[in-house]
Amino acid sequence: MSTSHDPDGPAPSNASREPGQSRSGPSVRTIVIGVLLTLLLIAGAVLTAVLVNKSSPGTFVTASASKPQFPMELPAKIGSYSRDPNAGTTPETNPTSGISTMSATYSKGSQPAVVVVLSRPEKDAQQFMTEAAMGAVTAQDGGYCGTSSDNNLDACVVISEQTAVMAVGLLGQSRADLMAVAQQFGSELAG
What we know:
Largest sheet: 9 strands, antiparallel
Oligomer: single chain
Radius of gyration: 25 Å
CATH class of the domain at 52-60 and 74-190: Alpha Beta
Order of helices and strands: HEEEEEHEEEEH
Structural class: alpha+beta
CATH topology of the domain at 52-60 and 74-190: Protein Transport Mog1p, Chain A
Distance between the termini: 91 Å
Helix content: 25-40%
Strand content: 25-35%
Number of strands: 9
């Protein structure tokens, strides 16, 4: 009786393996964990890009012949919220998509309270939330709210003159409070 393996027969079983020996190559569990971590990193990168894009100036020409859009500027103060007037808030335009974004952190009192993000042109608040890697997205008072998939911060967005105005809570604010902030910024920016 021969102990050699027949190339046309079944593959040898793993029963002959010593305890503690593993197959060569990564396990399925390792691959799944790797894929999940990669997806989380990508989602985090997308949200970071939306929240942090403010390093170089950009322009956007709109085809809308109706009311001109408000300037892509974040004021130093709106209502009880203020930002550091020395912090730069220059929009950055993605050359591929043509979308301009900018953001600033606003404090209420002396504590950072919200990050306000502008993104233009945007027509669909729900789609914007999906592209910003927000989960648990629900309609709320004329806009949408969701939770960031990479840092669990809640955020709400409204569309004002083809511009997404998103308020990201830094103090655990309710979605209703964040929607009020997004609406306040959207209406005051639009004049």
